[in-house]
Description:
Layout: E1 3-8, E2 12-14, E3 19-28, E4 41-48, H1 56-70, E5 77-83, E6 87-95, H2 98-109, H3 119-131, E7 139-146, H4 157-169, E8 172-179, H5 185-195, E9 196-202, H6 208-219, E10 222-232, E11 238-241, E12 247-250, E13 253-262, E14 266-275, E15 285-292, E16 295-303, E17 305-307, H7 319-342, H8 346-364, H9 371-383, H10 390-404
Parallel strand pairs: 2-17, 4-5, 4-7, 7-8, 8-9
Antiparallel strand pairs: 1-3, 3-14, 5-6, 10-13, 10-15, 11-14, 12-13, 15-16
Helix pairs in contact: 1-2, 1-6, 4-5, 7-8, 7-9, 7-10, 8-9
Amino acid sequence: xxxxxxxxxxxxxxxAEASRxxxxxxxxxxxQEEAAERVExxxxxxxxxxxxxxxxxxxxxxxxxxxxxxxxxxxDRFSLVxxxxxCDLIAAHAFATSSHKAxxxxxxxxxxxxxxxxxxxxxxxxxxxxxxxxxxxxxxxVLLLTDGQANRGVVDEDAIVARVExxxxxxxxxxxxxxxxxxxxxxxxxxxxxxxxxxYFIENARQLPDVLSGExxxxxxxxxxxxxxxxxxxxxxxxxxMDDSRLTVVPEGLRxxxxxxxxxxxxxxxxEVVLPHPSxxxxxxxxxxxxSANEYPIEDRVTFRVGDPMLSRGTSRDxxxxxxxxxxxxxxxxxxxxxxxxxxxxxGSRASLEEACRQLFELAEGDPAxxxxxxxxxxxxxxxxxxxxxxxxxxRRFEAMHALRDRDPDGRPRRDA
Length: 417
């Protein structure tokens, strides 16, 4: 069954002043063999066929679609939409029988890449196909694959993201795949975050079949759906996750959406906790509840106690927790610096990393485990002080995002060792 373990760097507060702590929440999803049967998948694919996709890009994307459809069983369902400045329904939503797959691929081979990019219309048509007859016990996901900008139809990012979030609340998740140097990574990352899915950077078109089929393969191994970590926070205590992209603040505290977890996936959530002076709150307690659509909630609690100020540092620290905190801290700093660099603020980007180095040095308290991460962060500060190529900037933004979400550098889920 799914497990949740909570560890704290120090659960003893500094008795003389407010204190800063880190909480590590480790969630391990259950093995697929423990589920009664694999959850059936309702899959929608929205494939960009604008002019910039012509040639090998579109050919390899079609290859990825073929591989992905080959992974589906006849109890799964799929639909396929292509879009440029218009939108074409290649295959209506239906069970993934051999004949339906063959007809879809035959129609896809007739498609040609040309024209502009009405990304929103292509995405909406794909979600309409999936959503017209949602099955209660099935897993619904739409994959959006594009190499360009939304330059036709609805182009307002906030409006697009709002639609994605609304569909997630209806049970349809969204993952995005961006190809090459010209797509809008900010929009695709926001869509995936709002849609409860994943976002990928495909630097070379030859990666397309593996990334697309990998995302579908992961969807077929989901054992925990719509996982949410709730942290109930008492008054006067401040709690913030390193990754706030899927954070919702509620009256009781925080809700962090972890999305769907695949078999034996390991997700580590790092929380920064600031406790008030003990005279304000003597023994703060954080309550944790892990919820999912298909399991009973898992609950746990962390209580901090007041200690001697001299003993609340140094030897009492759990350094295994800090080994997870340091890279998460660095990833957050890189993400912020990359955003500044993308806006052309090279000096600000470099300064933000230099400040992050100072903070990390102070945070580490001489811990040798932080040395290599600090050295890499100092090196990155020089790179961020100048204009980067579109490929390099995208690579860094996606690597930081994946690190914050505790996925591997390519965006795939981590499995328990």
